[in-house]
């Protein structure tokens, strides 16, 4: 395997960081690497908020569910799906712009995810660690108010960046045969493959450093699908102009 593939396969979420700042020049290079990600029709429908203010970092840590590393990492980013810049530009160019389409929401969300993953890979190639923060969507209205996000822009997730102060094991992934389908969707073997993966994850949780857990993949999924997960998101998105027409 080449070094890039090995790097991608070695990803871990880092939640404990050294008290050490990322040099500004390196930080900006990470963002430029992010900008080189694929983007639908060259729309570049994302904005990245670099949260520097310490009090705002503390607030975001609490809004994200009390995740202290949001405040403690070297740099914290909020990746936003942004349809405002592109639609405003098209309007200034003379278009009769239609806003609020579901496809616009999808394009902007996917663009934000792609640019973030480029930033993540660039960061890890430079010896940095990171952790995605989906908890930003726990309180998206308050996050938007704090970051002064206008209509047609919403916070998709955050990202902690910094120099790692821990060395966690790589978490196993589903078997390739479970997620890679040939020609058609096939799930005849899913129950068997998931059972095997549950055994793998149980072994991982029992053996990993930093404490063991008596659980597996399927068990950890149960809370996600036995309650309404972030039911506020639909009304929030519509209120931000993503009407999903």
Automatic annotation (TrEMBL):
<dbReference type="InterPro" id="IPR029479">
    <property type="entry name" value="Nitroreductase"/>
</dbReference>
<keyword id="KW-0560">Oxidoreductase</keyword>
<keyword id="KW-0288">FMN</keyword>
<feature type="domain" description="Nitroreductase">
    <location>
        <begin position="9"/>
        <end position="163"/>
    </location>
</feature>
<dbReference type="InterPro" id="IPR016446">
    <property type="entry name" value="Flavin_OxRdtase_Frp"/>
</dbReference>
<protein>
    <submittedName>
        <fullName>Oxygen-insensitive NADPH nitroreductase</fullName>
        <ecNumber>1.5.1.38</ecNumber>
    </submittedName>
</protein>
<keyword id="KW-0521">NADP</keyword>
<dbReference type="Pfam" id="PF00881">
    <property type="entry name" value="Nitroreductase"/>
</dbReference>
<keyword id="KW-0285">Flavoprotein</keyword>
<comment type="similarity">
    <text>Belongs to the flavin oxidoreductase frp family.</text>
</comment>
<dbReference type="InterPro" id="IPR000415">
    <property type="entry name" value="Nitroreductase-like"/>
</dbReference>
<dbReference type="GO" id="GO:0052873">
    <property type="term" value="F:FMN reductase (NADPH) activity"/>
</dbReference>
